[in-house]
Amino acid sequence: SQDIPKLADRVHGINIKLMKAGGLAEVQRMIHIAQACRLQIMFGCYSDSSLANTALAHLGPLVNYLDLDSHLNLRDDPFTGLSLEKGRLQPNNLPGLGVSLRTKDD
């Protein structure tokens, strides 16, 4: 978040990755600073699990673009969360973040 104001006059937007940001609190700081700098915001991911992508998706309404599909490429994602329906990532109705541990039957 500290780098955003330094770069704001050189970029049009930022790409936030939860694992690089270090947590949801820092992601929220980054969003607020980028908005104050009038920058566009995108959420991205690097082979993140359903846990990370589902958590970040909860902040989706605050940003311009979402690219949170890396969990769909994981063979052994230990979690279930967002699902792909008709080309769109959809949350579920589970409490909390909407994430659960995958069982042997999943």
What's a concise summary of this model?
By secondary structure, the chain is of the alpha/beta class. It contains four helices and seven strands.
Q: What do you see in this structure?
A:
By secondary structure, this protein is an alpha/beta fold. Helix content is 27%, strand content 21%. The chain has four helices and seven strands; from the N terminus they run αβααβαβββββ. The strands form three sheets. Strands 1-2-3 form a three-stranded parallel sheet. Strands 4-7 form a two-stranded antiparallel sheet. The protein has a two-stranded antiparallel ribbon with strand order 5-6. A hairpin with a 2-residue loop joins strand 5 (83-85) and strand 6 (88-90). The longest helix has 13 residues, at 24-36. It starts with a helix and ends in a 5-residue tail after the last strand.
Parts with pLDDT < 50 across at least 5 consecutive residues? none
Q: What is the H/E order? A: HEHHEHEEEEE
* N/C terminus separation: 38 Å
Number of helices: 4
Major sheet strand order = 1-2-3
Biggest β-sheet strands, sense, barrel:
3 strands, parallel
- Fraction of residues in H or I helices: 25-40%
What is the global morphology?
elongated
Count all strands and give the number. 7
